[in-house]
Amino acid sequence: MSKRVLWLYLTLALCSLRAVDIIVLGQAPAEWDAAPQGTALGQEALNYFSNEPIPLDQGRILLDSRIRYQHSAQQGLQADQAFTWRTRVGYETPRYYGFYGLGEFENTWAMNLSDYQSNPPANGRKVIRDPRNNQLNRLFLGYSGYNSEFKGGRQTIAFDNHRFVSPTYWRQNDRTLDAVWVNTEAVKDLWLSYVYNWQVNTPSGVYAEPVFLSRLISRNHFVNVHYEGLPVGQLGAYFYYLDLGGNASGQLGSATTSGLFYEGELAVDNHWSVPVRVEYAFQVDNSASGAQYGNFWENYWHVTAGAKYRKYLLQLGFENLGGNGTRGLQIPIGAKHKFDGWAGVFSVTPPGGLRDYYLQWNAPLPYAFECFGGLHYFTNAQDGTTFGKEIDIGLSRHFSENLSALLEFAYYDGQDGASILYGANVTQVWVSMHFHL
Question: Number of structural domains, the chain?
């Protein structure tokens, strides 16, 4: 078949597709539309504003409060304990022809701040990264309509499973981004998202010194695409260009990461299913990467497969973060606690990379309790030497839609002969109460 004939067939095929078959714009925004609903208690509080000229009761009250105790100990360092209470208060307006706004203030009260080290340098102590903080946590204007959304301002942004871009909800202070975020589902079976981010506000808080621990002046570009037209699951692709500034931390984290993944849950019968996720990415240097790291190409693999019965889950996983001996694949604005073990040993990927072989579980218990956790075996991705083993166990209970409690324990058993960073034993304990509207 000649090229001309092939192009003719392709042209006829494209012309046969009507725009209505692939473009799904949805409805035009109403004059007034309610914000996403919070809890029943939050909606009840909004009823006090039901007689106002502007329908404030169609907005959403934001109140999120968590009080927490953390014990942190590492072999060779002084153990620390932290009592912290984080509260966020804000309001999201109703939609007016699709336009809306959100503002939220955050306070973290470090009740025993003088008794623990909340930010580097460690000074011979185990750092607990929950400093005192008072800040404007979120403030943005948005538009929602025609199956698309726009947000501009300070906001929390997460993609996919939170691995590469996440607010790190585990810490008392969120990581927020000063950014423009556009996403659309106007193309059938496709979700497209783009972010330009000019400042990263870190969980270290506004009082951290030096200033780059608090915020990073950035020129970051994020592109994320999901295809949901498969019989089971979805395909995803992403491109993250990170320029985190010229300081040492920024040069280590600045790089370009591109990846693909498939995620789905294969049903066996009405109760049993098999959740699966397969992901590959690579990270390369860009113009903002530190010259001391040279040119690099580091591979990322993550494969999980499990068995799920109702709400019970048992899952095996393998994650590889490549390294060349000088620099490991870095995840400076992604989630760590969820992936690299709760003990927090691998907050920075080792120069030779990291491999994590793990088993995770989740099981509901009587009286509304839930048990979850994991076992990890960590090795150097470059030469296979053992870093250590870890066990994580958590217990949670929801007392109501608004109130919950959490207990977590982590113990990392470092391998004898490994460096002080990865060979020391680490113990972490958290007890917290969480209330939200």
Answer: 1
Has residue 16 been placed in a domain? no
Going by their DSSP bridges, the two strands 190-201 and 176-184 should be labelled as antiparallel
The single residue listed with the structure tokens 């113009």 is 287
Distance, C-alpha 308 to centroid of its chain: 23
Mention every residue, 6+ apart, whose C-beta is less than 8 A from residue 6: none
Of the candidates 346, 343, 359, 341, the one whose C-alpha atom is nearest the C-alpha of residue 429 is: 343
Is 404 part of any domain? yes
239 neighbors 222 (Cβ within 8 angstroms): yes
Reading the chain (437 residues) residue by residue, the pLDDT tens digits are: 455 655 655 565 555 555 556 787 777 677 677 778 788 888 887 777 766 666 777 889 999 999 999 999 999 888 999 999 999 999 999 999 999 999 999 999 999 988 888 887 777 888 899 999 999 999 999 999 999 999 999 999 999 999 999 998 899 999 999 999 999 999 999 999 999 999 999 999 888 877 768 899 999 999 999 999 999 999 999 999 999 987 777 788 999 999 999 999 999 999 999 999 999 999 999 999 988 999 999 999 999 999 999 999 999 999 999 999 999 999 999 999 999 999 999 999 999 999 999 999 999 999 999 999 999 999 999 999 999 999 999 999 999 999 999 999 999 999 876 666 788 999 999 999 999 99
Q: How far apart are CA 367 and CA 223, in angstroms?
A: 43
Q: Which two tokens stand for residue 96?
A: 């007016």
Kindly report the pTM of this predicted structure.
Answer: 0.91
In a domain, 212, yes or no: yes
Supply the range of the domain harboring residue 96: 24-436
Domain CATH for 133:
2.40.160.10
Give the C-alpha separation, 437 to 435, whole Å.
Answer: 7
Tokens standing for residue 195: 């972010």
List the Cα angle 134/167/99 in 5-degree steps: 85
- How far apart are alpha carbons 245 and 282 in whole angstroms? 21
**Residue 44, C-beta contacts closer than 8 angstroms, at least 6 positions apart:** none
Does residue 15 sit within a domain? no
